[in-house]
Amino acid sequence: MTDRHADIRDAVRALCAQFPDEYHRKIDAERAYPEAFVDALTKAGWLAAMIPQDFGGSGLGLAEASVIMEEINRAGGNSGACHGQMYNMGTLLRHGSNEQKRKYLPQIASGSLRLQSMGVTEPTTGTDTTKIRTTAVKKGDRYVVNGQKVWISRVQHSDLMILLARTTPLADVQKKSAGMSIFLVDLRQALGHGLTVRPIANMVNHETNELFFENLEIPAEHLIGVEGQGFKYILDGLNAERTLIAAECIGDGYWFIDRVTRYAKERNVFGRAIGQNQGVQFPIAESYIEVEAANLMRWKACDLFDAHEPCGAEANMAKYLAAKASWEAANACLQFHGGFGFAAEYDVERKFRETRLYQVAPISTNLILSYVAEHVLGLPRSF
């Protein structure tokens, strides 16, 4: 399975080799955005992988996109800087109008526009998406948006954003997932004209923000699909997101295993390589087994998504397994590097922080367990 799409792997690895550990270390230390790296990925066409060829992209599927994300992380980078463009494609591609696709996709494919951001989560609702309070009220040929979002990533490095808002009050719908709509927001026009962005400092070099909407006007033609069907549309994007995150965690897992295996062979204490000790060997071997197993579920989720088959359970399970595997690999890598694992020059502590995020986001492990319990095993809903 690790040889699947070998041509893509080789090409992405060659590009990533131009941005060694020192580059990513410097970006992390400065809490900067990897502009040069993202530009290189864009110019090489990798971030347009899922855009159809008719619109200037490569016309590839989620499987190929997942390989790109995996290889970035396996090379020591952080796909979190650019993965939004991949999973946001699902919403626009599957539910956008032909006019919207013709207008935006060629520019996104060329890199003249970035679609890196998705506004769903809110401070008072978290992952209880049906309870969102951000509203979009239609007035003539425009929608007026008011509300608040939080943990919205890459807004400062994106031109467009996918936004989920309520167009029908929760009290007026028969099904709580109804009455929400998806909009394509032009951030260049919105900033300072009804949209305020407040950056959130956090433990990872991950640009994320709190958004405030105050009478932001969005042209009606920026509505994606049918009004009120937004929750259904956003699920495509969320399934793609979770599968891509799984691939990134798999890339992280292999990175940690590669690093700690090499170090365990080279590091000698008490007259022998520390890798000769079973107390060192076993956690590394266990981590490798778990990453390999997560990899199989990743491919299952990708194949179902690309076949337009239901894949909610597989996407969630892939994300759960991969995030768990990468976190265990990170712990083993840091532990067996000893004090050197905490030294920035070894890059372990940076990757350790980055992969820890995925125990919490984009969906927590407990919510995945609840999903599987209810929707796969048929147990009573727990919330």
In terms of topology, how is this protein built?
Blueprint: H1 6-16, H2 21-29, H3 35-43, H4 62-74, H5 84-95, H6 98-110, E1 115-119, E2 135-139, E3 142-153, E4 160-166, E5 180-186, H7 187-190, E6 195-199, E7 208-219, E8 223-224, H8 230-266, E9 268-269, E10 272-273, H9 278-306, H10 312-337, H11 348-356, H12 365-376
Parallel strand pairs: 1-4
Antiparallel strand pairs: 2-3, 3-7, 4-5, 5-8, 6-7, 9-10
Characterization of the model:
- A hairpin with a 2-residue loop joins β9 and β10 (272-273).
- It contains twelve helices and ten strands.
- The strands form three sheets. Strands 1-4-5-8 form a four-stranded mixed β-sheet. A four-stranded antiparallel β-sheet has the order 2-3-7-6, with no helix packed on it.
- The mean pLDDT is 96.
- The chain is of the alpha+beta class.
- Helix content is 48%, strand content 15%.
Key features?
single chain, 383 residues, alpha+beta, four-stranded mixed beta sheet, four-stranded antiparallel beta sheet
* Spatial order of the strands forming the largest sheet: 1-4-5-8
Summarize the main sheet: 4 strands, mixed
Q: Count of helices?
A: 12
Task: Let me know the average pLDDT.
Answer: 96
- Which percent range describes the beta-strand content? 15-25%
Rg over CA atoms, rounded to whole Å, is 21 Å
Unreliable stretches covering 5 or more consecutive residues: none
Through-space gap between termini: 37 Å
Silhouette: globular
Write down the secondary-structure element order: HHHHHHEEEEEHEEEHEEHHHH
Structural class, by secondary structure, is alpha+beta
Q: How many beta-strand segments? A: 10
Fraction of residues in H or I helices: 40-55%
